[in-house]
What does this fold into?
Amino acid sequence: MAESEPAAVVLDAGPIIHLDELGCLDLLDGFGELRTPHTVWQEVQRHRPQMLPGRLTELKLSDVSKSPSPTLTALVRGLDLDAGEIAALCLLEQTRGELFLCDDAAARLAAESIGFKVHGTIGLIVRAIRRSTRTVAQVKGILEQIPSQSTLHISRSLLAEIIRLLPKH
It folds into this structure.
């Protein structure tokens, strides 16, 4: 039976950039409509100038039309978030998104604090095992490439622990 996926997913730049660096943007398939603010897309374009919105067929570039809630405003002030992260969080609130894909710890904390589920690049890669879009060996290979092929900041010891915890089959 197919796994049920969230209907509304908001992306920050990190997962788009890192999955593209690793050659596995297809790991964003299956979420339904993906949304990202124009501000975030500009950040993606700065880091991956060859990236075209059409490479993610489900991606919808969105305007942020509402101001953040008072709770999000307070979190933004205290967490030193950049313009893209703020726009993505505002879009998350605006669309009542079910999931926020982000690698920035402070932005993830803000999203979780206002009640949203959050996953990052590592979670997307490991999810491929559950969805049977990659074997355990393929996921291990992708994870092992992160230090040399991606700008994702993760300690080698944490990455080694994640790899160690992968299923054994």
Observations:
- The domain at 1-169 is CATH 3.40.50.1010 (Rossmann fold).
- Confidence is low (pLDDT under 50) at residues 1-6.
- Helices lie at 13-21, 38-47, 70-79, 83-95, 105-113, 121-130, 136-149, 156-164.
- The radius of gyration is 16 Å.
